[in-house]
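Our preliminary data section would be incomplete without showing what the modeling component actually yields. Below, a chain of 396 amino acids is followed by its predicted structure, encoded as tokens that our downstream tools consume directly.
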Amino acid sequence: MTSTKRPLKPQTQLVHAGTLRSGFGETSEAMFLTQGYVYASAEAAEARFKGEEPGFIYSRYANPTVDMFEKRMCALEGAEDARATASGMAAVTAAILCSLNAGDHIVAARALFGSCRWVVETLAPRYGIETTLVDGTELANWEQAVRPNTKIFFLESPTNPTLEVIDIAAVAKIAHAAGARLIVDNVFATPLQQKPMELGADIVVYSATKHIDGQGRCLGGVILSDKEWIDEHLHDYFRHTGPSLSPFNAWTLLKGLETLPVRVRQQTESAARIADYLADHPKIGRVIYPGRADHPQADIIKRQMSGGSTLICFDLKAGKNAAFAFENALDIVLISNNLGDSKTLITHPATTTHKNLTDEARDELGIDPGTLRLSVGLEDIDDLLADIDAALATVS
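Predicted structure:
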């Protein structure tokens, strides 16, 4: 990439940032499908292992194609450093556990993806790490949960699946006052529509499987933070536990980043229209969409998000049977627990992504028997509306 001192817009960074070209001068990023690297001499190998000479050692630690993806994500997020992982859950788990010891304490918003909640609520306590779950939308809950041993705050915003929005800047201030770091899972907002680090977050994680790939091809994740935290806490954990991203998947994600702004813009525009349609339908109860004036945290959304969302949460008034009948009657919209895809996908959280929660926990999160989560894709909006309308017509 030609060097320039001018600040570049995200669309440009997503095409060019972090590009590393070989001596062949390839246009597209190269795939370096190798586990290891050759040294010119025994002395060179020693120097590289000691950190005295730059270069790659082993692809579990770092790889040129993966490095390009990490640098491009840093440019987009405004982070100093990053580590790419094999999946979004690998990113979440590493980010939470790498800096904690037995006896430390996590405060987390209770509205989390099912696997994220399992890491916080079930896995961490097995290693002597204390946890407290709070209603993250109420700032007083964060303050009241702080203990002398609190080291990490963790939240998603918007949340999965009910699209609650948490005041990231305010929670960051509470965390820092307590001497804790704030980790934000930003997957629902995408790095284009919310910038957690600008709001005070210390660490940001993504499931790159979602919008970043956005075409249902591969798994991936990424952790972004300042270089000091990554060097002191994440680097050795990452190096020795091995949640590394494959070079092939890194290359796929690089290609996904190039079209991310185009895809997210259309998906968000379509989602807004579908949310308005659902809100006026007599068979639909609640509709939650970050972008509508009736969203419970509409004022926070205006402050911290630059766009709505590609996702919609809504309830069929008649409950689970109606929700299943609606899903089964859809033609274009596909039933899948994934999201952020070019194809429009729908899932029933109570029986899929959040099935392992107790009934009481689902009630707390607002996940009802009739709740559905719609991830809007790239299909023509008129075709999507017609498909949804026809499916609703079959619901008694």
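The first helix runs from residue 10 to 16. The mean pLDDT is 95. Preliminary results of this kind motivate Aim 1 of the renewal.
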